[in-house]
Amino acid sequence: MELGSILQFLENKTILLTGVTGFLAKIFVEKILRVQPNVKKLYLLLRAADATSASYRFHSEVIGKDLFRVAKETLGANFDAIISKKIIVVCGDVFYGDLGIKDSSLREEMMNELDIVLNFAATTKFYERYDIAFGTNTIGPKNVICFAKTCLKVKLFVQISTAYVCGESSGLIPEKPYRLGETLNGVSGLDIDYEKKLIDTKLDELRAQGATETEIKHAMKDMGTERAKRYGWPNTYVFTKAMGEMLIGNIKGNLALVIIRPSMITSTFKDPFPGWIEGARTIDALTVSYGKGKLTFFVVDLESIVDVIPGDMVVNAIIAAMVAHANQPCDEVIYHVGSSLQNPMRYSNFRDYLIQYFTNKPWMDKNGKPIKVNKPTIFNSISNFNRFIKIRYSPLLKKNQTCEAAS
After folding, report:
1. Are the C-beta atoms of residues 193 and 201 closer than 8 Å to each other?
2. 238: pLDDT strictly greater than 60
3. How far lies 98's CA from each of 120, 121, 245, in Å?
4. Buried-exposed string 75-84: b where 16+ CB fall within 10 A, e elsewhere
5. Which residues are paired to 335 by β-bridges?
6. Cα 118–265–190 angle (5° rounding)?
């Protein structure tokens, strides 16, 4: 697909994004503003108490980030004018009908103008409270696509999901949609309405028992894990994202629908510059821990593949999919966006990259001194790891226990 055709497609388009303060959505917004400042409008939905708070969050948590440095340099004095003219910050929440947009005139304006709707909103914690994950990852997409269907000009709905809705299967994973009630392990009985009732009933019971907020939090986390594993998903995050896919596929009608399923998203590869990241998630947490000298061993099969994909490549895939499928009502189209098939990185590569990078560019401690890293110890099985822990640390634990008893 030629860059020129993509830029032409984006020109004069009006787009709604949810989940704008998230890592991937920020990269998307930056890309659009930098490469096609002639986009007509970007409506950005943010959770906030009011419009003023939403605007503050946008400026501090989105365009205030270093990610937008290149766009500011490229657009110069026009950057602020473009933001003022093109960006409409919307106070709302995907958890509610009509996206929680209380301003009726703004809501009507959006319904008349929107061309494309993208749902980035999600909670990505693997073991999030079930009620929170269900509200954002399952009911959220339903509310967003219902809003999109009320818009007069909408040509496409894009749902940002995750490749791990496919669970822990090995081999080639097909890009196929999930239908209502479908499960990974073949266990019947999955009913999304029933899951909502279970959540509400459990919350009512806990509150009636006088449970503390901490107790409620732990109970809802446990409930999410139990419900996910009951139907074959490994954690609450991917289970609720899969149910979200089921709902939007069921109610999309004639609206063109694209579901993007990225694997582990890492820092940018080159746009707007290499290495931009926010926070430490999944494999990034391992990288930071190793660099700080806190992670000295891994339990891993060095020949297995770790499927990672730079954030800017995911955004490029989203934009290309938008161009390819707008105005083409059909069954939902799904794209897995990852690297394991065409450009795989094995854990042996990951280990070598860590050693090479932090040896040449060591992490500095709080005193400004470089932290020396060593080649990590690799355990290829949990049993070998447990044996190491027993030999290495059990004597120390017993010694400490003896000292405490003597004192």
Report:
1. no
2. yes
3. 16, 15, 19
4. beeebeeebe
5. 260
6. 65
> What is the maximum alpha-carbon separation in the chain?
78
**With 60 as the cut, is the pLDDT of residue 405 above it?**
no
Q: Rounded CA gap, 3 and 300, in Å?
A: 40
- Please tell me the distance from the alpha carbon of residue 80 to that of residue 10, in angstroms, as a whole number: 20
Predicted confidence (pLDDT) per residue in 381-399, tens digit: 889 888 888 887 777 666 6
Determine how many CB atoms are found less than 10 A away from the CB of residue 398.
10
Q: Which of 41, 241, 252, 290 is catalytic?
A: 241
161 Cβ contact list (under 8 Å, min separation 6): 241, 244, 245, 259, 260, 261
CA 179 – CA 215 distance, rounded (Å)? 34
Q: Which amino acid is at 368?
A: G
C-alpha distances in angstroms, 159 versus 18, 140, 259, 261, 262? 10, 11, 5, 9, 11
Q: Are 33 and 10 in contact (CB under 8 A)?
A: no
Give pLDDT tens digits for 67-116: 999 999 999 989 999 999 999 999 999 999 999 999 999 999 999 999 99
- CA–CA gap between residue 1 and residue 404 (Å, rounded): 69
| Residue 237 among the catalytic residues | yes
Q: Which two tokens stand for residue 315?
A: 């955004």
Which residue has tokens 């009320």? Answer: 150
Backbone angles phi, psi at 219, to 5 degrees: -65, -40
Residue-level pLDDT at 119: 98
CB atoms near residue 148 (< 10 Å): 25
- Percent of the chain whose pLDDT exceeds 70: 96
Task: Output the pTM of the full model.
Answer: 0.91
43, 178, 237, 335: the catalytic one is: 237
Identify whether the C-beta of residue 322 lies closer than 8 Å to the C-beta of residue 257. Answer: no
Q: Measured between alpha carbons, how far is residue 6 from residues 1, 156, 187, 343 in Å?
A: 8, 15, 43, 25
Question: Phi and psi of 38, rounded to 5°?
Answer: -90, 10
Tokens read off for 126:
């693997």
* 241 catalytic residue (yes or no): yes
H helices within 16-154, ranges in order?
Answer: 23-35, 51-61, 69-75, 78-86, 104-113, 130-133, 140-149
